[in-house]
Write a structure and sequence with these properties.
The complex is a heterodimer of chains A (394) and B (391). Chain A is of the alpha/beta class and 394 residues long. In chain A, strands 2-8-7-6-5-3-4 form a 7-stranded mixed β-sheet, sandwiched between helices. Chain A has a 4-stranded antiparallel β-sheet with strand order 9-10-15-12, with helices on one face. In chain A, helix 2 runs parallel beside helix 9, helix 3 packs parallel to helix 4 and helix 11 packs across helix 13. The termini of chain A are far apart. Chain B has 391 residues and is of the alpha/beta class. Chain B has 2 domains: 170 residues, VC0802-like (2-Layer Sandwich); 208 residues, 3-Layer(aba) Sandwich (Rossmann fold). Classes of the chains: A alpha/beta (394), B alpha/beta (391). Chains A and B meet through helix 11 of A and helix 7 of B.
Chain lengths: 394, 391
Amino acid sequence: MHPDSDIDAASPIYLDHGGTTPLDPVVLAGLAERLGWPLGNPNAAHGPGARARRLLEDARRMLAEHLGGRPEEVVFTSGGTEAITLAVRGCTTASPGRIALGATEHSSTRTAVESMAEQGWAVDTIPVTPTGRITPEALAETLRPDTRIVCLMLAQNEIGTITDIAGLAPVVRRLAPRSKLVVDAVQAFTKVPFRVSSLGADCVAVTAHKMHGPLGIGALWTRAAVKPLFKGGGQERGQRGGTQPAVLAWAFAEAARVAAADTDACTRMAALRDALVAELLAVLPDATLTGEPPGPTRLPNNAHLCIPGLPSEPLINALAEVGLCASAGAACSTGKFRVSPTLQALGRRAEEGAFVRLTVGRFTRAAELPEAARRLAACVHALRPAYAGRLAPR
Amino acid sequence: MQPDLLIARFGELWLKGDNRHQFTARLQKNLAGALRAAGLRGGQLRIHEARMMWEPGNASDLPAAFEIFRNTPGLANVSACVRAPKNIEALGDAAVELVRQTWTGPQSTFVCRARRVDKHFPENGPLIERTIGDRIGHVVSNWRVDLRTPAHTLLVEILRDFACVSATNADCVGGLPVGTAGRGLLLLSGGLDSPVAGFLAQKRGCELDAVYFHSPPYIPEASREKVEALARNLAARQGGLRLHVAHFTEIQNAIHSACDPKLTVILYRRFMYRIAAAIAERAGIQTLCTGESLGQVASQTLENLRTVDRLTDKLTLRPLIGQDKSEIVAVAHRIGTYETSILPAEDCCTLFVPRHPAVRAPEGVLEANEAKLDVQALIDEALARTVVVQL
């Protein structure tokens, strides 16, 4: 009997690993054990404090190793949003200058940059190609000599496009020599091979829960010290106030270790993703893949489809009802359908249909994919009649 | 010095005749339920000297109970009181200390008011006001006395059993105790209007059930959760509420595929009224309540309201019929539904709706469109799939 033959129409299928991932059982076991340890405040002088400090610093060392940097360059945060915000705000200079950011940056980067705009910083958006790539030419045209911060993402969260940061960094250095390059590697970490030391970036943000680690812990790798968002008790070498959650930090590093040890995980995920796309296109022949073709320029676990003839939101609701977890790149507001800022930047329009992101994980099983495709197609076919002729521009 | 007694006065209830005790008893029951639901236990609630009084089991419960009193229909106003010996000196001492602790904000205006129920008390009302007013005037020496519209009132009450002072007084919602005017079924959406309409019906004594029309998968679960949050607000005023979640998807599909798009909204509403009337009938409720406001949208013109009214012999209350949006918003703020109502979430009225819906739909045209549908089967299915949530 095939080990996956237990999948039936009622089994929940989780294909939203781009949203968050289930905790790896190995990480969970270690985390649960350590939560029971008599640990003190890692900044305290006594024995329990020292034990917590050791755990925290071991985590920092392990994580730095997997990132390809030095331990003292790692600042633990509450997650990716805080890491990105710390990088953007922590790199600002006293007198306002210009910030450049990619057109498809995550909302955490966009809002951090917008908050700087309120303080007099000028914001330049770097246009992307229809598949979400930033070309050296587009970057060069956007940069100014007084650009102080450049924000790019290593892997795009919705459509999975991978940006060649190492290739773009020299352009930044040449045309905006006084700028800091801030990189969002939240989706990329453990799925795209990189070492911060050779990326050419100044700051790189990562988070644990996108790689089968726990929620509530992230980190910023930073070449030079950044100004804190809040000072608190001066923890993390003055860059991030607040008592460090040593056990969560350990679990983050452990998740990185476990992911790295699973050496063929990316190949496996890519194969699963390719099988999923093939299944989906077989049942929905008019659907199209958004973004880059599968390969080195696309996250191995990301599939993002445009399905004509219906809007995104009811499809996602319907998928939720049939136990298929996916996410939409669009939202509906009082009857008017709009695509996400990322899809807008690609020139996509809501009238084209439903945009659906399906993201596999290390624990996704091949047998889940035909069933996922079957449910998606069933929902699409059930909803399409209601929207016949209704997706025209309003 | 901490206030250790709430005293609330009855408003309109006082005009009731021989059946007044039925109203006050229901009010006492409603308050007891709301206090219990909020986890405020161990206090003593009683009607004494023609007032509703509550002594907390724990003095720190008083502010939460004060808010419950403020929002419970049937009460005119409420005071957080400190009791003092029944002489003008001791009452003045208590007033001075209470004001010193309570009126700590920026410069403002105040007045001292006295109510002398016990006519044996030697000083009369105006004399009490002058004497104690003078004393607290020295505490808040830079505040101005304002007899007409003071920002703060120090109230001295000389009751038969005891005397007290209060520096924290507020108007309550007024009206009649929920449950004294019978039961109604509120057509509840996630918007601003219907929760306010429900509150106004409750305020006049109407105890509510609510019905919400849900259209999965067109409408996300978040919309239903939002409606449940609004229903919980109404439930708190009457010690629980039954929310009937009616399944509306098939009806929308049928109307959308067979009927004139211009009539979509008014046809939705006709089905909603029919379903609401059937749910009300099953629950033994004779009255519907809606958040309609005359002319606010196309489905709320006189002509269109009339076509839905004729579908049922139930009385339909429309407490907002003469209200502007700004007036509705003000009440929504007051009762605490505004922040929930403005959360972005679709409701089924916006689905498949044309840009220019019919403002006046002749009944014959509506009936001709409905003749293309199996109206009774659609209603029966929606009723069969209706789920009741006890909040």
